[in-house]
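[Help] Beginner question about ligand-bound structures

Sorry if this is basic. My supervisor gave me a protein sequence and a SMILES string for pyridoxal-5'-phosphate and asked me to "get the holo structure". I don't really know what that means in practice or what format the answer should be in. Inputs are pasted below exactly as I got them.
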Amino acid sequence: MVLTQTRGNDGQKSEVSFSEAILNPSASFGGLYAPTELPDMSISFVSEYLYSDYKTLAFSLLKAFNVDIDDELLNRALEQYDKFDNPNNPVPVVKVDEDLFVSELYHGPTRAFKDMALQPFGVILSGLAKSRGENYLIMAATSGDTGPATLETFKDKDNIKVTCLYPQGGTSDVQRLQMVTEKASNLKVIGVRGNFDDTQNALKNLLSSDEFKSELQKRAIKLSAANSVNFGRIIFQIIYHIHNYLELVRKSVIGLGEEIYVVVPSGNFGNALGAYYAKKAGLPIKKILISSNSNNILTDWIEKGEYDLRDRELIPTDSPAMDILKSSNVERVLFDKFGATRTKELMESLDKEDYYYLTPEELKEIQKDFSAIYTSDKEGLEYIKEYAQKGYIMDPHTATCMSAYKNLREESLPTIVCSTAEWTKFSVTVASALGIDAKSDLDALNAISKEFDISIPNVIAELFEKEIVHTTVVDKDQIMSEMLAFL
Ligand SMILES: *Cc1c(COP(=O)(O)O)cnc(C)c1O
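Answer (accepted):
No worries, everyone starts somewhere. Holo just means with the ligand present. The predicted complex, written as structure tokens, is below.
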């Protein structure tokens, strides 16, 4: 597999292998790596896996991409899905309404869809680092879900260290406990006094600090990234869209070749990009419906072709993993549709002027694949209540998808909603939607579990008993010294 740089490289060498793109994910001019070609994912490929398990499908797709990772490491990576609730079917697709199916992407160890990609990705990154005799640092700043999933995948892995910054008081109890109870000598979790923006900015400053870089060099530590700028994560986010399609065939909801809609609750657009690549490579998806919360920049982009950060401030919502204004994977769509020269122009305008507008022709191209809508917190709570009354409990991120399902479909085709978190991670919000008075996550978990007779997975219940091993909380200007002490 060959990847190339989304903003070009002024005639310099611009193509790298899959493993190089994983280890060193940032490309020239601040761009990303994107595949130059996609393997066939049309019915002729997909139908061969109608009776295969998830790992077999995943392995075959990675082979079709021709990744430069040996089979032993690939198999070890995919064995991570054995830790999911049902190893034979890590992603259950559940019928919720006549033509509405929810793909539950959250049955992994941290109960969020981040596990789908981060679990195998962690094994591959560590394996590559070890075989090269190199040591890597992953620095995460999290508003909630990325942190736990990154820590969980890299805990006790060779040749990798992880530092994870979270805004103190800015995460749910469950998310915080998932991080501060994660015990391993290669992990350092640091609470920062401030909000998520402060935390993320502190990380950015550190990444561009010469002093910090030279300290890393002295210790022979290289930097990589585990967020969805890393194509190594995106590749695992293509597989489950194929799996979802096959599940509908297996359930006799559709015949092979019939089209479906896919609804994706989006933030950094990694999940949506996976669906886009699958559609482009032939998977019969009529359209990808993008749902947002009140941070509705993706709605404007897809409806009007406007990506405009001026006069926008991040609004904290009930679906915090989608509280994003600079959605990084949009760049890979721009590159795929309009090429490197235009992508560089648009992204530089965004970086420097805080906006860009697509031409009407370009907008039409985007709208061939995507439609978009957003959901306010108030509507989201109503959806949670409505579906709970029908017997299905969903988290606030998944709830944003219901506006798309109800308003964006032009035909009544079977529809897959990607559910990105289990209700247990956002139980206080879910409780308030259901009219249950709960002061803490623990109260909310117990009350909902009792009222709806659903169980709380052990990995969540146990968090409240576990020893807290990371107690560091610092001001922004102390982060570097804390990290260097750890390294
Ligand atoms: C990360 C995340 C999202 C957003 O996914 P992207 O791939 O960044 O668009 C949505 N919901 C939950 C619960 C998440 O953790």
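A couple of things worth pointing out: The CA atoms of residues 65 and 129 lie 21 Å apart. The chain has a mean pLDDT of 95. Feel free to follow up in the thread.
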